[in-house]
Each structure stands twice: as structure tokens, then as C-alpha cells.
Amino acid sequence: MNEDNHHMRGMIHMISEGATDGDSRRARKAHGRRLENFEISKGADLPQDPVISFGVEDLRGVVTSHNDALVVTTTITNYDVARIFIDNGSSVNVLFKSTLDQMNMEVFEFEPVSTPLYGFAGHAIPPLGQIVLPLSLGTDPRRVTKMIALTVVDTSSAYNGILGRPSLKDFRAVASAYHQKLKFPVGKRVGVLCGDQKTAHRC
After folding, report:
1. Distances (CA, A) of 105 to 131, 181, 200, 202
2. 150 close to 133: Cβ distance less than 8 angstroms
């Protein structure tokens, strides 16, 4: 096609919801202004993380002719929680109320959240609130724990929770659904969390 005849009709952006950038219009506008004034960090300011890569060795034990989601087991408040969906497309981390109920925590406090979430079907899901809990990836000695904000929703799901972009950023983790691995820095080493393809099929 001749470039002179290639007329741009516009740009289609991704739509996402949730309180990642703030739970009010004012907070989201402030975040937008910070992005507009953002300056690229100098190399000296960046964390000196180990190189994270994926190769053929990561495919051992993986059925490669798959289209499976990356579903892992994490530790939340000393509970091993299976069926956690790693979702690069989610603007929030989600914990389902049924999962929270099984943790039998006597005292916890929700932070109010007014911004609704929108599922794949497009309908709004009002969150019960947000809770900050310790969440661990990996096993010793390559284990890391961080306090993660989780948006709690009371709806049915095949998963116990969803780790979205906020937690992947906090852990500086890199996911590969093809390799069925989630990798993250642990000091100067790389921790690995393997996906469970059988569980992904059941979900």
C-alpha cells in the first residue's frame, strides 16, 4: 500500500478499570500528570536485578502443545493458596471472598473501594473493599514476601485469586504462559514459580 494513501482513522486504546491509579477521578488525573512529567530513569537509579530469561530448559515437564493459563500456588498469610491466576491484563490484584473466608482471620479491616471492576462479560462488580496481606512467591531459599493490596470481590470464580500488573510490578516478576513459569528476583538470584497445567485445565 502506498503510504500516501494510508490514512490513519485513529487509535484504539485498551480499556481497564479498578483502583490501581487511585480510587477517585482526582487521583487518576494526578497519576496521569505524573506520567506526562515522567523522566526516564538513569541506569544508576535502577535496581540491580539478575537477568531473567526463558529457554528450552524451562520447558521440561511442560506439555508444549497447550494454550493454558498460568495458574500457580502462592502463600498468603501462612496459607498455601492454589488456583491463583497470573493475569498481565488485570489492573488490580483480586482475592475472592470465598478464599478469604477460608483463611479464618479473626481481625482484618477493609479499605473502602468505590471504583467497580469490570469482568470479561462487561458487567460491573462492586468490590467489598481492599485488604493488604503478606504474599509469598517461591520456596526457600529463593522465596520473597511482600505486602500486597488485594481487592476483595464476592462473586463466583474458577480461581481463588488473580495476581495482576500491580503485584507483578511489586515483585518485579516476569511471566511466561508458554513456559508455565513465573520468575522474579531474590537478591542476586532468580526465583521460579511453576504453573500447574492440570489445575489450569480444570479452571
Report:
1. 12, 30, 28, 28
2. yes
Unique residue bearing C-alpha cell 468490590: 127
pLDDT on residue 116: 86
Instruction: Find, among 79, 191, 201, 52, the residue nearest to 134 by Cα.
Output: 79
Q: Could you give all domains of the chain from N- to C-terminal order, each with its CATH number?
A: 43-202 (2.40.70.10)
CA-CA distances (angstroms) from residue 101 to 98, 106, 108, 156?
5, 10, 11, 13
Rg of the chain on CA atoms, in Å: 19
pLDDT at 16: 46
3-class DSSP assignment, residue 140: coil
Which grid coordinates are listed for 96? 475472592
Contacts of 163 (CB under 8 A, 6+ apart): 74, 84, 85, 86, 87, 90, 93
| Average pLDDT along the chain, 203 residues, taken 10 residues at a time | 58 50 63 61 73 97 94 95 94 94 84 82 84 96 97 92 96 97 97 95 85
> In whole angstroms, what is the distance from residue 161 CA to residue 47 CA?
28
Q: Are 122 and 179 in contact (CB under 8 A)?
A: no
Q: E strand or H helix at 151, and its extent? A: strand 142-153
The edge-to-edge listing of strands for the beta sheet with 174-176 is: 174-176, 181-186, 189-194
Alpha carbon distances (Å) from 109 to 105, 115, 188:
10, 18, 35
